[in-house]
Structure formats: structure tokens, C-alpha cells
Write a structure and sequence with these properties.
Layout lengths: L1 H12 L14 H11 L4 H4 L8 H22 L21 E5 L5 E2 L4 E4 L3 E4 L5 H8 L3 E11 L2 E10 L17 E5 L5 E3 L4 E2 L6 H16 L5 H35 L2 E5 L3 H6 L1 H10 L1 H15 L2 E5 L25 E3 L6 E3 H11 L43 E2 L4
Parallel strand pairs: 7-10, 10-11
Antiparallel strand pairs: 1-5, 2-3, 3-4, 5-6, 7-8, 8-9, 11-14, 12-13
Bound molecules: zinc ion.
InterPro entries: Cas12f1-like_TNB, RNA-guided_DNA_endo/Transpos, RNA-guided_DNA_endonuclease, Transposase
Protein name: Transposase
GO molecular function: DNA binding
Length: about 400
């Protein structure tokens, strides 16, 4: 393909008309044709192992290449949002994610404890798949594909399925509270809720930190290129993978609970990309996966019939008093407690922000109680508008945060 592209460039510069240029295999059918016809004889020399693998693996790989190329074109033509997409890169064992994919052929669960994979045959799995096989059996789910991947010496198979999901309508379907909840996603804690509850960052368990230290020390001392180094690298990777799994579990537990127990969840539109550029915050932000919390809430609120509201990025949730709306423009990141100089409210910084987020949702003002359960009365004009200009006091207006959560 690259050869065809450079050939094309050469032809263009020598003035050959557009319709006479060398065609580039840009789509899946073209790529497949190229591989199965033009490269058929060469397969034996460039990839002598090709016959050992399911032909599906190549087809799925070409499919991914084709969609990658499509993204490149779309990005260049301005039809795709976000960061500019580069030309697809080669994958390399150990560098890229080790994975392959089936989309056709006889693959899928075979009973509750086995999967059938073309060319590999029947494989036992560690996790029971009852939830999947039950849905497949009675037609509530349809298999679209399977991806086999390897991380830290473990093999995984993940199935893409289309599932009929019943979206609960109405607020009382799952005995949820109609009261909205504000969620302040943070660096110090994973999240602080407007109810005053703090969800700590998932941390390494005590023993794991010690193991991590000894494993990284052992790895650092090993000889480069030796088999001992390989083993120690694997051990270190397993410890990291375990911590990553625990973190992921913590995030999912939180987002599922929120989406199931509250009708409306209000989060801040953090400029995560901007925070990542601030190097001091970068690690912590990566660790807690704030963007991931929002992504999960976006689809889980759809699943469970609740609503996600994302506050405007410039909404000063931390700098505003949740009791009276007084603004402290001088608040810095190191101020852990919010002290209101207007009404005297003293409140944890993150709880204050969470309460402000909750107050953005219409109808919550009357229910506003002090997050700490103290005897403070709510000020009637205490709600603060979502305004783009920080510093303009505008009490009494309704927030203009748009409900989100249609992205599945
Ligand atoms: Zn106040």
C-alpha cells in the first residue's frame, strides 16, 4: 500500500491525470483482494506461518486497517473531530497489544466454561459465562465478534454482542432516590458526593506495595537480555496489572452504584487534556481515571434510565459557597476547606463543589440541605448560574447545563 502511495505521488508530480494514477487498496474489499490474489504466492515467503492462523484473523486485521485508513482521510478532510489521526503503524509483538479478532466462522461460547475458536479449537475459560450464554440461547443477544488478547501472560477472549436492553422509564423503577447527586471528581479522592460521602482512590493493598518495591528492585538488578530479567519483568507486570484491575473495578463499582441509585447525576466538565499538560497533576489524573468515570456514567445512565448532567467547564463549583452563592475567586488548589466570608459556612472543599454541582439541577434548591447535616438554612437565591465569565456574580439564575448521556 505504501508502495502504491509513493508510486502515485511520483505519477502526480510527473503530471499524469488523476484518473490514470495507480489505484491504492484503501477499502476492506480492495485490501482483501490484494492479500488473497496479488500476495497469494508471496505469502509463503513473507509470512510462512500464515496457514497456521485462522484466515479470519487476517481479514479482521485488514478490516481494522481499512477503518484506520478511513479515519486518516476523515481526519484530513475535517470530517472527524478530535486529535488528528496519523497513518496506521505496524504492530509488533510485545510493543503493541497482542490481539486478534474473529467476526465470522464458528466461534463463540461452547457451554458455560468453554469457547470455540477457529483454528485453535475448544478452550476452557476461567470465568463462567452464564450471563452471556443464557442471553445467546434465548435470543436476547447476538454475537458480532470475538477478540482474543493477551496481557501479562493471561489470555482473554471478549465478545462483542448486541443485547436487547430494557431501559427503565420513570424515576421509581429501581427504587432510586429522585434527589440529584453532585459528584466532584478529584485528585485527592476518586470522588466526593454531595451527600458528603467520600470515595477514596483505589490504592495498592499494603502487601502489594512491598511486593512492587521488591519486584522493581529485582528487575533493576537483573542483567539486560537475560532470562532472569524476562521473568522479573513478567512478575513486575503482573503486580501492575493486578493494581490496574483493582482500580478498574473501583471505578465500575462507583459508576454503577451512582447510575442505579440516583435519577440525576451532575459532574463537572473537567478539561482533562488540559490537566494532563500540567505535569504535577498528570499522574494523579491518569491514576484515578476521571475521564473514565465520566465515560462510564454516560453509558450507564442510559442503561439504568438515569440522567447525566455535565456542568459547564467554567462553572466555578469550587469557588462558590454552596450555602449562599458567595464567590471566593482567590481559592487555590491547596485550600482544602471552603470558608464563606458572607454566610460563615465552613465546609470541605470537595463536598462544597459537589453540592454546587447538585444545585445546578432544577428542583434541587428546595431540597438543598447542608451536606454535613448541620442546621444551616438554605438561602433562596443561593443558586449560581452557569456562566462563561468567571467572576460575574449572577445569583438566582438557573443552570444551563445540558443533559447528556445519549452516547452508548
Ligand atoms: Zn456562604
Amino acid at each position: 500500500m505504501k508502495a502504491a502511495l509513493s508510486q502515485r505521488d511520483a505519477e502526480k508530480s510527473s503530471g499524469i491525470p488523476d484518473d490514470a494514477l495507480t489505484p491504492v487498496p484503501w477499502t476492506l474489499p480492495a485490501l482483501r483482494l490484494e492479500w488473497n490474489l496479488e500476495w497469494n504466492k508471496a505469502k509463503a515467503t513473507v509470512a510462512p506461518w500464515w496457514a497456521e492462523c485462522a484466515k479470519e484473523a487476517y481479514s479482521a486485521g485488514l478490516d481494522q486497517l481499512a477503518s484506520g485508513l478511513k479515519n486518516v482521510t476523515a481526519s484530513r478532510n475535517g470530517r472527524r473531530k478530535g486529535r488528528r489521526v496519523g497513518f496506521p503503524r505496524f504492530k509488533k509483538r510485545g510493543k503493541a497489544r497482542d490481539s486478534f479478532r474473529y467476526t465470522t466462522g464458528s466461534y463463540g461460547p461452547d457451554g458455560d466454561r468453554h469457547v470455540q475458536l477457529p483454528r485453535i479449537s475448544r478452550v476452557k475459560v476461567c470465568e463462567p459465562m452464564g450471563a452471556l450464554t443464557g442471553r445467546l440461547a434465548d435470543g436476547r443477544a447476538r454475537l458480532l465478534g470475538a477478540t482474543v488478547s493477551r496481557t501479562t501472560g493471561r489470555w482473554f477472549v471478549s465478545f462483542t454482542v448486541e443485547v436487547d436492553r430494557e431501559v427503565p422509564a420513570g424515576p421509581s423503577r429501581r427504587r432510586r432516590t429522585a434527589r440529584p447527586v453532585g459528584v466532584d471528581l478529584g485528585v485527592k479522592h476518586l470522588a466526593v458526593l454531595s451527600t458528603g460521602e467520600t470515595i477514596a482512590n483505589p490504592k495498592h493493598p499494603a502487601g502489594s506495595l512491598r511486593r512492587l518495591r521488591s519486584a522493581s528492585r529485582a528487575y533493576a538488578r537483573s542483567t539486560p537480555g537475560s532470562s532472569g530479567r524476562r521473568k522479573r519483568a513478567a512478575r513486575l507486570a503482573r503486580i501492575h496489572a493486578r493494581a490496574a484491575n483493582q482500580r478498574r473495578d473501583g471505578l465500575h463499582t462507583l459508576t454503577t452504584r451512582l447510575a442505579k441509585t440516583h435519577d440525576t447525576i451532575v459532574v463537572e466538565d473537567l478539561h482533562v487534556a488540559g490537566m494532563l499538560r500540567n505535569r504535577r497533576l498528570a499522574r494523579a489524573v491518569c491514576d484515578t481515571g476521571m475521564a473514565e468515570v465520566r465515560r462510564q456514567l454516560a453509558y450507564k445512565t442510559v442503561w439504568y434510565g438515569s440522567t447525566l448532567v455535565v456542568a459547564d467547564r467554567w462553572y466555578p463549583s469550587s469557588k462558590t459557597c454552596s450555602g449562599c452563592g458567595w464567590r471566593n475567586p482567590g481559592l487555590t488548589l491547596s485550600d482544602r476547606t471552603f470558608v464563606c466570608r458572607s454566610c460563615g459556612l465552613v465546609i470541605d472543599r470537595d463536598v462544597n463543589a459537589a453540592v454546587n454541582l447538585r444545585n445546578l439541577v432544577a428542583g434541587s434548591a428546595s431540597e438543598t440541605e447542608n451536606a454535613r447535616g448541620a442546621d444551616r438554612k438554605t438561602h433562596p437565591g443561593g443558586r449560581v448560574a452557569v456562566k462563561r465569565e468567571p467572576g460575574t456574580a449572577s445569583a438566582g439564575q438557573t443552570g444551563s447545563a445540558a443533559p447528556q448521556g445519549t452516547a452508548a
